[in-house]
Amino acid sequence: MAENVLLEAEGISTHYGTSQALFGVSLKVPSRGGVAILGRNGAGKTTLLKTLAGDLRPSSGTVRFDGTDCTRMPTERRVRRGLGHVPQEQAIFGGLTVKENLLIGAMGDRTGKDRIDEMLELFPRLGQRLAQKAGTLSGGERKMLAISRALLSRPHLLMLDEPTEGVWHGVIEEIAQRLEQLTQDIAVVIVEQHVKLALRVSSYCYVMDRG
Ligand code: ATP
C-alpha cells in the first residue's frame, strides 16, 4: 500500500465471553479510497468493525488511527478524532423525524446547518422526507439517514457494515454512487454482501475466513 496509512490494526483477537471470534486480524486502510472486507456469514466482519470502532475491546492486538494508538480509547473519542461507524443495525432514532435525527447528529457543530444541507444534497431523497418519522422510512432511506448521521461528525474514515442490506435494488445504485463519491475525499471501509458493489467502491480488499 503506497498511500499514507490512516488506520492500522495488528494482530487483533476479539472474544465474546470465552468464544473467540477474531484470531489475530491485521489490516491497513489508506487515508483515501475504499477498502472492502468480504467473507462468508459468521466470518467475523461485523466483529472486526465493532472492534475498530471501539464497541468491542480486543483481547490482544493494537489499533492505530491517524498516528495514535487508540486500542483502549472509548468510541466517542474515536468519533471525535474522525473515525465514523455505521453499524449493521440501524443507527437512527425511529421515533424522531428525519430532520430531528440530522439535528442531533450535527449537535455541537457551529456549521451543523450547512453540513445538514450538504447531506441533503448528497441524498436528496432525505430532503423530501424531513418531517417523516425515521422509523417509517424505507430500508434504503434508513441507510441513507444512518450514513448521513455518521458523516455529520466529519469522519476521515467511515466504516459501513452492509450499507445495502434490505435495500431495494433500484436504490442500491444510488447508494453505490454516493459511496464512490465519498472515496474521492475520505477513507471508506465497507462490509458488503454484494461483492461487485464492494469492489466497485474499493481499491483494496480483505477476505476473512473464520476470524
Ligand atoms: P454476517 O455476514 O452474517 O453478518 P459476520 O462476518 O459479520 O457475519 P460476525 O457477526 O462478526 O460475523 O460473527 C463472528 C462470530 O462471532 C460468529 O460465529 C458469531 O456467531 C459470533 N458472535 C457474534 N456476535 C456475538 C455475540 N454477541 N455473542 C456471542 N457470539 C457472537
What does this structure look like?
It is a single chain. This protein has 211 residues and is an alpha/beta fold. Helix content is 35%, strand content 27%. It has 8 helices and 9 strands. It has a 5-stranded parallel beta sheet with strand order 6-7-8-3-9, sandwiched between helices. Strand 4 (60-65) and strand 5 form a beta hairpin. Helix 3 packs parallel to helix 6 (139-152). The longest helix has 14 residues, at 139-152. The protein is globular, with a radius of gyration of 17 Å. The model has no long low-confidence stretch (mean pLDDT 93). Bound molecules: adenosine-5'-triphosphate. Adenosine-5'-triphosphate binds next to strand 2 and helix 1.
Question: In short, what is this structure?
Answer:
The chain has 211 residues and is α/β, with parallel strands linked by helices. 35% of the residues lie in helices and 27% in strands.
